[in-house]
Design brief:
globular, 6 helices
Length: 260
């Protein structure tokens, strides 16, 4: 993947930084400082490559203004809703970098993509979200425990601080079902198994002045339209009526995702 504009330029990174037990905004860091932490392999800067001609198996190009799977037509990459999209190849390469997938084959256009959902039993992950309240978290855990006891699916409630990036990646890669709300929580959904199902719980968002509240499902581009993932959503009608999660509805939609 070639991505222009980073090398010596600064990139904004949303990092979890704590000073005096208080969360602070992210810092502006060089890409060279970030990539070794998350990339899991080597990378090269175009300006430091010495030969005039290079041969690549596959090239995906973008600038800092082009998102991988953005719904914004000005920013999206070509073929974003197909097996050709850059987010799919980025995910496969990331998994290979950490030894989850073999390096050979997955970049070839002729490689068969075989869904392996629920092979060895259903597994899933519900990723924590800053929008969840403590009551929400307790309710989610009760639901996951109930589903596990039923034998339908073993779903982990993942809290960011409890797992390293590599541990998180392995959990995602082994999951058939991914559940979270909007924002950062849903942006790891593309890392689950081929044929998996993503459940976007949404949120009740306040917009405008005077404020109006409405059910919101931002970041749907990480699942909706991808041919290798299914997508389900917590009903907006229930958000609009109750303004908070209804346990029966949460359990119902998760079980539907497991059965899909």
């Amino acid at each position: 993947m070639l991505r222009f504009g980073f090398a010596g330029a600064r990139a904004n990174a949303a990092l979890r930084i704590v000073y005096n037990e208080k969360h602070q905004p992210g810092e502006a860091l060089l890409a060279d400082e970030i990539i070794p932490t998350f990339f899991g392999g080597d990378y090269y800067q175009l300006g430091k490559m010495t030969s005039k001609i290079y041969q690549f198996q596959r090239v995906i190009m973008g600038s800092r203004k082009m998102a991988h799977r953005s719904l914004n037509l000005r920013g999206t990459l070509p073929g974003s809703y197909s097996f050709e999209n850059s987010l799919y190849y980025f995910t496969q390469r990331l998994k290979a970098s950490y030894g989850i997938l073999p390096w050979s084959g997955f970049m070839s256009a002729h490689t068969r993509l075989i869904p392996d959902r629920a092979i060895g039993g259903c597994r899933g992950v519900l990723t924590d979200n800053k929008r969840f309240t403590q009551d929400d978290r307790a309710m989610f855990q009760r639901i996951l425990d109930t589903i596990k006891r039923s034998g339908k699916c073993d779903i982990v409630f993942l809290k960011w601080e409890d797992y390293s990036f590599q541990e998180q990646l392995r959990i995602f890669a082994d999951s058939d079902v991914y559940i979270s709300g909007v924002g950062t929580g849903i942006t790891r959904a593309h890392m689950i198994k081929l044929g998996g199902v993503v459940v976007n719980l949404g949120e009740l968002e306040s917009l405008g002045d005077p404020a109006r509240v409405q059910a919101s499902y931002r970041d749907v581009q990480f699942s909706t339209g991808a041919p290798y993932l299914g997508a389900m959503f917590y009903p907006p009608r229930l958000w609009n009526i109750y303004g908070e999660f209804q346990p029966e509805a949460v359990q119902y939609i998760i079980e539907k995702a497991v059965d899909k």
